[in-house]
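Quick question, first post here. What does this chain look like in 3D?
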Amino acid sequence: MYRYETHLHTSPASKCASATVKESLEFYKSLGYDGVFITNHYTKVKNSKFPDMTQEEFIHFFFKDYEDALSLSRKIGIKVFPGAELSFEGNHFLVLGLDKDWFLAHPELREMKFSDMLNLMREEGAFVSHAHPFDERGFINHIKLMPRCVDAVEVINVQKNPFQNAMANFYADAYGLLKTAGSDNHIAGKSKKLAGIQCEEPIESVADFIEKAKAGKISIFQIEREDRESEFKDVSIEFQKLP
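> Answer (accepted):
Ran it through. Tokens below.
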């Protein structure tokens, strides 16, 4: 099976990440992954974490990690695909497939209603998955679902507890949405758990990924290790029974 990470943060584009592009790609290559989606945090308004940058400067800064990863990927033999994690009132959405030129060509995103922005992205070839939709961290004001604006739901996020993942799985089933899984990895090889997507044939592009996902040719997986030195082992995916 060909395996892919769909939720990966790298430094410096994501301030919350401690692992660099090089550390991340070398780690996934060592595990035999065929590819990764680089999904750093992106905001459509002036970025509070990089307040001295204009939006155009931020877009160039944001995509440098992906561009560095793309260059390195050719040397070490692992595929890299563009992505972003967008935030709306504390809720997060993985947007896979749009490159720097697309974002630079759409300055109107800053003024758009969030649902309209997601729909525009999907119309222009992006794949949108609602990431950890039942996250209940303190900074999140409320859970907000947008089933008509996404293609999929991230039903396994190894940073979240089993109940939150079970609710995400229920959400996907209730609305007939596709399912993704991801590690939400910020620390590369220091992670004790991983999750992602897999298929029997390699994914050649984001368009190819979308075609395979809609054709039911992609499944999700989860792996973990007992300590930080041991090898990762596949574990079965069992969703917590809802009350």
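The longest helix spans residues 55-76.
The helical segments are 21-30, 55-76, 100-104, 114-123, 162-175, 206-214.
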